[in-house]
Write a structure and sequence with these properties.
Blueprint (H helix, E strand, L loop, with lengths): L1 E2 L2 E6 L2 E7 L4 E3 L3 E5 L3 E10 L2 E3 L1 E3 L3 E6 L10 E3 L5 E12 L5 E2 L3 E6 L2 E14 L6 E2 L3 E2 L4 E14 L10 E5 L6 E10 L11 H7 L5 E6 L5 H13 L4 E4 L7 H10 L3 E6 L7 H4 L4 E3 H4 L6 H11 L14
Parallel strand pairs: 20-22, 20-23, 21-22
Antiparallel strand pairs: 1-10, 2-3, 3-9, 4-8, 5-6, 5-10, 6-7, 6-9, 11-17, 11-19, 12-16, 13-14, 13-18, 14-15, 14-17, 18-19
Helix pairs in contact: 2-6
């Protein structure tokens, strides 16, 4: 078994597949299979260190020519009786090395073998205490923490558990903006070969709207409601996706606001008084009081300018905003 690192074609008569044999051995005349296409062919010739050989074994870098055209490119694997798996989901044990926290929904370029492919962490199963080995429920990871996570890729890839095939069972997460290595890990379990419906985050929805989701709380004791509506009109004309929301009666408006933010919207929350402000809003990272962020006045133009500034999307290509 060898992952293809390079397709060598010095002229129209020669097409060789270069890589290092990671498991087993290969001989001229062997029937091999290309993955993921599953096309089969016989080995026509083997080059080791630029010289022809009748066989090659584990650890040797080789150039192998097949007796017919098959669908092979960098990232494919040519194998013989190795029982490799093709899947788009797997469970991995990782060491998180990024300064930023890891949360479910973050996506990366995942390098496994010679294949580099977009992937997303769909779930953090648990964090591992490095001192006791205890499994601890976690929703996020800090730098240098160990965890077991679920990962999905944008298309099926060739892989196996680390205990079976080390090369195709080890991986790294690469930040799609900085190109830095965010994590390294090993494959513990292989999932299914199917197209996965990946979770959609509020960051993705907001990125499609070219804005950051935000809730601005207004008190009618300080701001005229007509000014708020005029400000929304100006925001809409500047391509902001907004919703002016005034709760009625005993409506559970905190839950409504959470849904609107998850939809990636800019919410202008109108309250009779800040005394009606629910405590849950205070811990919502997307919530701001108008009285705390206002600069010049409470006019529609001032509200428009301030909200527009606060909802600028810092980076449309941010890692949480990619749709892989």
């Amino acid at each position: 078994m060898w992952p293809v690192q390079r397709v060598c074609r010095p002229n129209h008569e020669f097409r060789g597949f270069q890589g290092q044999i990671e498991h087993g051995q290969v001989k001229v005349g062997d029937l091999v299979v290309s993955l993921p296409s599953k096309e089969s062919a016989h080995v026509k010739s083997i080059l080791v260190a630029g010289k022809e050989a009748d066989h090659a074994f584990e650890g040797q870098p080789v150039t192998i020519q097949l007796d017919k055209e098959v669908d092979v490119s960098r990232g494919c694997v040519i194998e013989k009786d190795s029982n490799l798996k093709i899947a788009s989901t797997f469970t991995t044990n990782i060491l998180w090395m990024d300064d930023n926290k890891l949360e479910a929904g973050k996506n990366f370029m995942i390098k496994l073998g010679t294949k580099k492919i977009p992937g997303i962490v769909t779930k953090i199963n648990y964090r591992i205490d490095v001192n006791t080995g205890e499994h601890i429920n976690a929703k996020e990871l800090e730098k240098n923490e160990l965890a077991v996570c679920e990962v999905a890729t944008s298309e099926p890839i060739i892989l196996d558990t680390f205990k079976n095939h080390k090369t195709l069972g080890e991986l790294i997460f690469i930040d799609r903006i900085t190109n830095m290595t965010s994590a390294c890990g090993v494959v513990l379990e292989v999932g299914e070969k199917k197209n996965v419906v990946l979770p959609v985050s509020k960051g993705m929805r907001a990125a499609l709207n070219w804005q950051s989701p935000l809730v601005i709380g207004f008190s009618l004791e300080n701001v005229d409601e007509n000014e708020i509506h005029q400000a929304e009109n100006l925001l809409l004309r500047s391509s902001r996706h907004t919703y002016t929301y005034r709760p009625e009666g005993n409506e559970d408006y905190v839950k409504v606001v959470e849904h609107l933010v998850d939809a990636g919207l800019v919410v202008l929350l109108v309250l009779d008084s800040y005394r009606e402000e629910a405590k849950e809003l205070e811990v919502n990272e997307n919530y701001k009081r108008w009285s705390e962020v206002r600069k010049d006045s409470d006019s529609a133009d001032a509200i428009f300018a301030r909200v527009q500034s606060l909802t600028m999307l810092n980076n449309i290509m941010g890692p949480d905003n990619w749709i892989i």
